[in-house]
Amino acid sequence: MNLGEKLKHFREQKNMSREELAQKMNVSRQAVYKWETNKGYPDIDNLIQLSNLFEITIDELIKGDSLFQKKITIDDQKKSKDHFSDPGFYLGILLLVIGGIFLEDGALADALTILGLLTIVFYDDFKKLFWGIIRDFKEEKYK
């Protein structure tokens, strides 16, 4: 049984509709549909939430779905290769160079150096935070 079939089975076992599951998961009904039809896969946070909701382990959810397991492996390989293609890396290096070389010692140089290091390390988190705020703002605006 693949992940989609298992999700549908456990959802129906709890007598939940896709809409109800989507509301509990804070995702769209279409996302649940895609998961159940194997047109998309939940991310790790949603897998954890699903396992808690259905009172099963993540292993029980994904075991037997070799396609999903291959996707996880491919995604991990992509993540490990993407460090140098990440614009945050280059932005951080630029800030380090400006702060460390072009500016004389002082508060601004120190601030740019620290900002550069933080940008290199946390660029993806800043990006997710920014787009999350934008998404929340749009959701509130159109309620």
Beta-strand share of residues: under 5%
Given as residue ranges, the uncertain stretches (5+ residues, pLDDT < 50) are: none
Q: What's the CATH architecture of the largest domain?
A: Orthogonal Bundle
Name the quaternary structure: single chain
The name CATH uses for the topology of the largest domain is 434 Repressor (Amino-terminal Domain)
Could you characterize the architecture of this molecule?
The protein is mainly alpha-helical. It has 2 domains: 3-78, 434 Repressor (Amino-terminal Domain), CATH 1.10.260; 86-141, no CATH class. The protein contains 8 helices and no strands. The longest helix is centred in the C-terminal third of the chain and has 35 residues, at 107-141. The two termini are 38 Å apart. The relative contact order is 0.08.
Summarize the structure.
It holds the Pfam family HTH_3. By secondary structure, the chain is mainly α. The protein has helices at residues 3-13, 18-25, 29-36, 44-54, 58-62, 66-81, 87-102, 107-141.
Produce the secondary structure layout:
Blueprint lengths: L2 H11 L4 H8 L3 H8 L7 H11 L3 H5 L3 H16 L5 H16 L4 H35 L2
Helix pairs in contact: 2-3, 7-8
Name its key features.
single chain, mainly alpha, 434 Repressor (Amino-terminal Domain), 2 domains, 8 helices, 77% helix, 0% strand, elongated
